[in-house]
Design brief:
The complex is a heterodimer of chains A (about 160) and B (about 270). Chain A is an alpha+beta fold and about 160 residues long. In chain A, about 35% of the residues lie in helices and about 15% in strands. Chain A has two domains: about 1-75, Ubiquitin-like (UB roll) (Roll); about 85-160, Orthogonal Bundle (DNA polymerase, domain 1), CATH 1.10.150.120. Chain A has helices spanning about 20-30, 85-95, 105-115, 120-130, 140-159; strands at about 1-5, 10-15, 50, 55, 70. By secondary structure, chain B is an alpha+beta fold. Chain B folds into three domains: about 5-55, Uridine Diphospho-n-acetylenolpyruvylglucosamine Reductase, domain 2; about 60-175, Uridine Diphospho-n-acetylenolpyruvylglucosamine Reductase, domain 3, CATH 3.30.465; about 180-270, Enolase-like, domain 1. Chain B is about 35% helix and about 25% strand. Chain B has twelve helices and 14 strands. A five-stranded antiparallel sheet of chain B has the order 4-5-10-6-7. In chain B, strands 11-12-13-14 form a four-stranded antiparallel sheet, with helices on both faces. The model of chain B has no long low-confidence stretch (mean pLDDT about 95). Classes of the chains: A alpha+beta (about 160), B alpha+beta (about 270). The interface of A and B includes residues 41, 43, 57 and 113 of A.
């Protein structure tokens, strides 16, 4: 079937098999490979993207279900001026990653959280990241990064 | 992993969904958020030939008060349930439990109707609607019918729904003591299905994952009605249940968890109101 998805503001249209998963559409049709396939069983969150502004695990969404919708991947966060999105900058500053495999999904889950709750508590950040597994950091620096990013994200939104 | 090939069809109204289902009969499955069905399809445990996507039916996405009950559209997401002010005041058990399903990403996509129609005894909301004495409304080619939650769940992945019938609404009678509720579950990781769970509303107690369907802990309810306290009543939590053994727990461990969680839930519900 023909699927048209606006990925990071750009329309991507392709004829794909009905069973194509959104994560494969993003990686292989839109050629945006930051979004990783991790567990492929809706557990690890490495494939998290925003679908119409809300975080979803793109290994468990059909491309057909996203037809006509907007998808944002981690590649779409920075505004093109070369400056990182505040969540990306905070992950860098707080050393919120080691191997980096979970990071694109982790960042998108954090962006989704901060869109819903502009000043989360540490506990709220931890529950909001329940669906994203990291095998390196032990999570402390990731939580620190999300908390550090919150004021900058609010500021950016009100600017 | 990708699902086996199927034909994708999209319905833009309930009528269209029913027409499409009538064309394909047993070979078709409705697809709501897909968070129960797609994982099974990826494991090839489900291989429907046709998927009828009902995910865009806005007409089935609502939470509203009607005479004496709260009506919830089947396509309402767990996230929407958990944020509903109406549910928070009238049926806080459902709002809270929906907020404990899976993780934020799962709650953004998963729907109450999908969870109920899937009929996984390890899922949270089937036990919650059972504790709430909800009525489920299904529409089929010959019209609408109402099914009490107690009659809806037949077995693992099997419900009262006929092929071609679509679950459209969940009607929840307003609890007489809305504050006397609790929801407890025990999981290995935060995002996992419950090894055992329990939903309490007033004197009603329903168990997650203690049988092939969600079940009422009738022996506990009887003890409560006779004036037993939480500790005394909870002793009966596993009576009449038939939990399965799996990689997470054997039967004895599940029975133990049921007793502990029921006691905690009863204490919590009493402390609340």
């Amino acid at each position: 079937m023909k699927v048209t998805v606006t990925v990071n503001g750009k329309q991507v249209a392709a004829e794909v098999a009905d069973r194509t998963l959104l994560v494969h559409f993003v990686r292989e049709v839109a050629n945006l490979t930051a979004t990783n396939v991790g567990c492929d069983t809706t557990s690890c969150g490495a494939c998290t993207v925003l679908l119409d502004g809300k975080s979803v695990k793109s290994c468990t969404v059909l491309a057909a279900q996203a037809d006509g919708c907007e998808v944002t991947t981690v590649e779409g966060l920075a505004d093109g001026s070369g400056e990182l999105h505040p969540v990306q900058a905070a992950f860098h500053a707080e050393h919120g990653l080691q191997c980096g495999f979970c990071t694109p999904g982790m960042v998108m889950a954090a962006v989704s959280l901060l869109a819903e709750n502009s000043s989360p508590t540490e506990e709220e950040v931890r529950s909001a990241l329940e669906g994203n597994l990291c095998r390196c950091t032990g999570y402390h620096n990731i939580v620190r990064a999300v908390l550090a990013a919150a004021p900058a994200v609010s500021e950016k939104r009100s600017a | 992993m990708i699902p086996a090939p199927f034909t994708y069809k999209r319905a833009l109204s309930v009528d269209e969904a029913l027409d499409l289902a009538a064309q394909d009969g047993d070979d078709a499955k409705f697809l709501a958020g897909g968070h129960s069905l797609l994982p099974l399809m990826k494991l090839r445990l489900a291989v429907p030939e046709v998927l009828i996507d009902i995910g865009r039916l806005g007409e089935l996405r609502y939470i509203r008060e009607e005479d004496g009950h709260i009506a919830v559209g089947a396509l309402t997401s767990h996230d929407e349930l958990s944020r509903s002010g109406l549910l928070a005041s009238e049926v806080p058990l459902l709002a809270h439990a929906a907020g404990q399903v899976g993780d934020p990403q799962v709650r953004h996509r998963g729907t109450i109707g999908g969870s109920l129609a899937h009929s996984d005894p390890a899922a949270d909301l089937p036990a919650v609607v059972l504790a709430l004495d909800a009525t489920l409304v299904a529409r089929g080619p010959s019209g609408s019918r109402e099914i009490p939650a107690a009659d809806f769940f037949h077995s693992l992945f099997e419900t009262e729904l006929e092929p071609g019938e679509l679950l459209t609404e969940i009607r929840i009678p307003k609890p007489q003591t809305p504050r006397r509720w609790a929801f407890q579950k025990f999981t290995k990781r935060a995002i996992d299905y419950a090894i055992v769970g329990v939903a309490v509303q007033g004197g009603s107690v329903a168990l997650v994952n203690m049988d092939q369907t969600p079940v009422r802990a009738t022996a506990v309810e009887r003890a409560l009605a006779e004036g037993a306290g939480p500790c005394e009543a909870a002793i009966h939590a596993a009576e009449g249940t038939s939990p399965s053994a799996d990689i997470n727990a054997d039967r004895g461990y599940r029975e133990h968890l049921a007793r502990v969680l029921v006691r905690r839930a009863l204490e919590e519900s009493l402390a609340r109101g």
